[in-house]
Amino acid sequence: MANHGRRNIDVKALEQSMKEKLRSHSPLSAECCIFRVPELLRRHKPEAYAPDIVSIGPFHHRNSKLFATMKDVKQWYLNSLLSRKKMTLKALIQLIQGIDNITVFEKRARDYYAESIDLDQNQFIEMMIIDGCFLLELFTRSDCLYQLDTNPDMVNDPVSNMSCMVQYLCHDLLLLENQLPWFVLKSLYNIICDKEMPLTLLVLNFFSGLSSLSQYCMNYLEHTHDEDASKKNTHDEEILHILDLMRSAIVVPFHKFESNEKVTALPHATVLAEGGIVFRTISSDDGIMSVDFKDGLLTIPQLAIAETTEPLFRNLIAFEQCYHGRDHKVTSYALLMNNLIASSEDVDFLCDKRIINNWLNAEDASQLFSKLYSDTFVVNFCYGGLCAAVNKYYKVRWNQWLARLKRDYLSNPWKITSLVAAFILLVLTLLQTTYTIQQYYSPPK
Q1: Phi-psi bin for 208: left (phi > 0), alpha (psi -120 to 50), beta?
Q2: Helix pair angle (362-372, 329-340), 10° resolution
Q3: What is the pLDDT of residues 71-130, one digit of tens each?
């Protein structure tokens, strides 16, 4: 039989070619927690994942034109920080090397990133120092302890001089692709700063300057205030980066609705209200995620929806989707709110109940959560038991009839008066009819 021109392959050459491409280790370390946002998520809103004015870490490091101004600010902040602490750059580098073997320090930091970083050792360590010191100086300058009269260089600071900068920086510093390992930040803090307050407090004080984030920060600080020192230190060790700290601020106070149910579907808010479910806002001291349901009453902490809300939630969800070490709590919350909000009418209803404090228009707010949840996958949905309990109550016909009665006849004093008058008129009519029939069949003698 003819071989139709086929040739035998060079087995040895093919083997050698394939062997060179094999890897003896996983391409991602178990420590990896800073990722490029998957294209499946990015495509829904690319600008929500990209920094506007400042690059932190290696992923956007090469984009020098876009971040040129803040690059100069970083160098100025580093010099200002070292001058104030009366420390030379050489002493700082030597102290960093003294924390650990510099090679171990570098490898640990590189392992935090989900891709190979095309920088040599000196370039990588320089980036860690400049970006880390920039963040520490930024947080220190925003703190009330850093007074203008004792620090005259604040007059020339573009960050403090431009009122919009805080919002821009909050946006950029809470992006998944724009993170620095927390241990790097903490190492620099322990070396340079006076440690007058915990690093977490210093960082959260900065973000609390933005009103839409302040409640998360305050709740976290109050929640951890009563913990003993050992628990505080343990939690501090678990923080991976600034975005992870903000996630903790949102989810740590969360009290889960205990149940093994796995229901995820739920009618939207206006439909539930028509079916007898009562909505009520509660204090957000336990965090925005602490939604509860009991005896027909659905209690939901107030959520502020502002310009920064969508980028923050998108990056938190991307982090949960990519990192194996965090439960899908924020993703679960997004799914729950997506169930409740199907239209601008639902947003208006929840605003009337003071469950949502909306700084956008109702239509944009209604689209926010539906777009957030697109192309995500939830493992261990946190609100399965709550959804099952709400659905069970909603499907009871008596509850729907009672809700209809309250809405149609008992919603205001005039309707109640009309109902009472109609009832009295009905009773009188019945009495008159009874008397007339009685007179007909038993006339008086």
Answers
A1: alpha
A2: 130
A3: 999 999 999 999 988 899 999 988 888 776 788 899 999 999 999 899 999 999 999 999
- In the 3-class helix/strand/coil scheme, how is the chain assigned residue by residue? CCCCCCCCCCHHHHHHHHHHHCCCCCCCCCCCCECCCCHHHHCCCHHHCCCCCCCCCCCCCCCCCCCHHHHHHHHHHHHHHHHHCCCCHHHHHHHHHHHCCHHHHHHHHHHCECCCCCCCHHHHHHHHHHHHHHHHHHHHHHCCCCCCCCCHHHHHCHHHHCCCHHHHHHHHHCCCCCCCCHHHHHHHHHHHCCCCCCHHHHHHHHHCCCHHHHHHHHHHHHHHHCCCHHHHHHHHHHCCCHHHHHHHHHHCCCCCCCCCCCCCCCCCHHHHHHCCCEEEEECHHHCCCCCEEECCEEEEECEEECCCHHHHHHHHHHHHHHCCCCCCHHHHHHHHHHHHCCCHHHHHHHHHCCCEEECCCHHHHHHHHHHHCCCCCCCCCCCHHHHHHHHHHHCCHHHHHHHHHHHHHCCCHHHHHHHHHHHHHHHHHHHHHHHHHHHHHCCCC
Residues 173, 56: contact at Cβ < 8 Å? Answer: yes
- Work out the number of other CB atoms within 10 angstroms of the CB of residue 224: 20
Dihedral (C-alpha) 104, 106, 112, 117: value to the nearest 10 degrees?
Answer: -140
Q: What is the mean pLDDT of residues 305-311?
A: 90
- Considering the entire predicted model, what is its pTM? 0.84
What's the rounded mean pLDDT across residues 125-137? Answer: 95
* Angstrom distance (rounded) from CA 216 to CA 208: 8
Greater confidence (34 vs 2) lies with: 34
Rounded-to-integer distance, Cα 343 and Cα 366, Å = 5
Q: How far apart are CA 295 and CA 166, in angstroms?
A: 44
- Strand order in 292-294's β-sheet? 278-282, 297-301, 292-294
> Which residues have a Cβ under 8 Å from the Cβ of 31 and sit 6 or more positions away?
108, 111, 112
Distance CA 412, CA 77 (A): 62
Q: What is the structure's pLDDT at 270?
A: 92
User: CB count, 10 Å around CB of 421?
Assistant: 10
Tokens in use for 251?
A: 């989810």
By CB neighbour count within 10 A (0-12 exposed, 13-18 middle, 19+ buried), where does 271 fall? middle
Find out whether 298 and 350 touch, Cβ atoms under 8 Å: no
Q: Is the pLDDT assigned to residue 314 strictly greater than 50?
A: yes
